[in-house]
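Methods — Computational structure assignment.
A single polypeptide chain was analysed. Its primary sequence is given first, followed by the predicted tertiary structure written as structure tokens.
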Amino acid sequence: MGVFFVLMFNEVVCHMYFRNSWKMYTSHEDIGYDFEDDPKDKKTLKPHPNIDGGWAWMMVLSSFFVHILIMGSQMALGVLNVEWLEEFHQSRGLTAWVSSLSMGVTLIVGPFIGLFINTCGCRRTAIIGGLLNSLGWVLSAYAANVHYLFITFGVAAGFGSGMAYLPAVVMVGRYFQKRRALAQGLSTTGTGFGTFLMTVLLKYLCAEYGWRNAMFIQGAVSLNLCVCGALMRPLSPGLDGEDPGGKEPHVLRAHSTESVGSSGQMGGAEEKGGGPGTEDAVGDAAAQACPEKAALGKNMCALRVLKAVSQLTVRVRRGFRDWYSGYFGAASLFTNRMFVAFIFWALFAYSSFVIPFIHLPEIVNLYNLSEQNDVFPLTSIIAIVHIFGKVILGVVADLPCISVWNVFLMANFTLVLSIFILPLMHTYAGLAVICALIGFSSGYFSLMPVVTEDLVGIEHLANAYGIIICANGISALLGPPFAGWIYDITQKYDFSFYICGLLYMDNNLFVMTALAPVKNPALCFDK
């Protein structure tokens, strides 16, 4: 009997393996198409009902709250940076490493999060990331020095943020085709809302309860990332390694087997002898069946464990194979020359946006503008205008007569100009105008997934965007400490902005030069 069940189990597992393998490597699933059998047994394509509608807008909502909780919190770290300077009495350059590590690790781990997505799916990856991010905030409340914060807040919370952030971006890209730029723009406005809300929240919590209790409370708030992850339903059955219906393949249960093996005998005995004298015979048969039931139950439990292990092994191997081939195989992303140029641009892009957020509170104190800034913080101006910038740039980029690359590059050059002008402003009104320009022009971040997809295609978006945000992470990791180090030497932040703006300008010119000979980068480079 045991051999029979083992053979039956192997057949079921093999069937599921080949069926899931065929689904996993069907490229149409990634772009929202399902296969249906027609009467002639031919495969036809049917658009998925949730593309550009239905549950797609729940993906936008989920991604919106992920941006509030992750990117918004990180952009508000200037408030905590001031508290850490007063608490630990370390240099500005060393203290700035805490914020930079958190931002940098969130983005640098992008390529490795792509492996998690290929193996576990976006939903599970985001939920695990929410738990890890919350743990990092809570542990940081007990920090005894800056170096402790490097581990708990910079690495632990940063890695958790990365695990929740990348799935939020990828899922919006999978659910939208016609209005992808607008959808990404709406979802990423959570960064602006989050920056405004988290700045106010952290200021209030630090004033009322101290920075340690503020981080503890923020850790509890970050658990909402798990709720956002739970909303990331796979687009098609089998996608992301999950079954959206929550159903398992039909397996022969222990009790059904027992009923076939024992009830048939008992039923026959009852029919042959219907009198009272047959009760003893039935009791003896039942007593003999008890050990068999226990043995069958153990066998079925073992089979379920073996099935789960087998499925997990197949999923991990498949996910690693897809991840490895995307980076190092014949279809490597690095064979796309325009994409490589885009990576070099990303290496310097993010610091131009991050440095003002980290150091503006300190700059305000140096210029004796604290009273005016307390009424309406400059970082909040960036955050509010950033919201409108993302939506407006997304709408403009979706217009059929306008190239998304033209919008993207114009916004970048406006941001560079703002970075150059900011050190020249020493009044609150002047800084407010420049901060508004920074906020609006930095709305191009909503276009980054769109231009990345334009370069590599939707099927490689997870891996490609992981590389781009990794390059952004290096920029965010090195930018603020560099600005703090320059201040420690020169006692002013001016040179930090000038050098950063100059490097950013060079990279914009490099990308524009590389893009000039081609009209559609996705069609002119090998993938």
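Note: The chain has two domains: 50-234+316-330, 332-516.
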